[in-house]
Each structure stands twice: as C-alpha cells, then as structure tokens.
Amino acid sequence: xxxxxxxxxxxxxFGIIVYVGKRIYDIELMNIELKDLFEARLIDQNTYLKxxxxxxxxxxxxxxxxxx
Length: 68
Hints:
This is YqgQ family protein. InterPro entries: YqgQ-like, YqgQ-like_sf. The structure is a single chain. By secondary structure, this protein is mainly α. The protein has a single domain, classed as Helix Hairpins. It is 74% helix and 0% strand. The chain has three helices and no strands. The longest helix has 23 residues, at 45-67. The model has no long low-confidence stretch (mean pLDDT 96).
C-alpha cells in the first residue's frame, strides 16, 4: 500500500466509498472509516498504520495546496 488510491481500494473491499467533493474532506472521512475498521478488528494493525500514514501524508499535501 503506497498511495491514496490503495487506501480507497482497501475501504472499497468493505463496501466503503468516500466522496464528499473536496479532497481534504475525503481524506478526513477516510481516516474516520479506517479507524472504525481497525477498532472493529476487521483490519490488522500493520495495515491500519500503513493506510493511516498515507492519509496523514496526503492531508499535509492538501493543506499546503490550500495555503497557497
């Protein structure tokens, strides 16, 4: 798992499709859904941490785009 697309595909396996319309909001909602999957023990810790790190990275990228 290396990209936001990979995280989207992980969520999709559980029937979760996120589209709010603004990329930064999509990332925030994906983070909530990911946490819920982990807390429900549907994904392991390693998968959760990899996906979470990707979401953190992508969120920072979006924040820097909005600052300009």
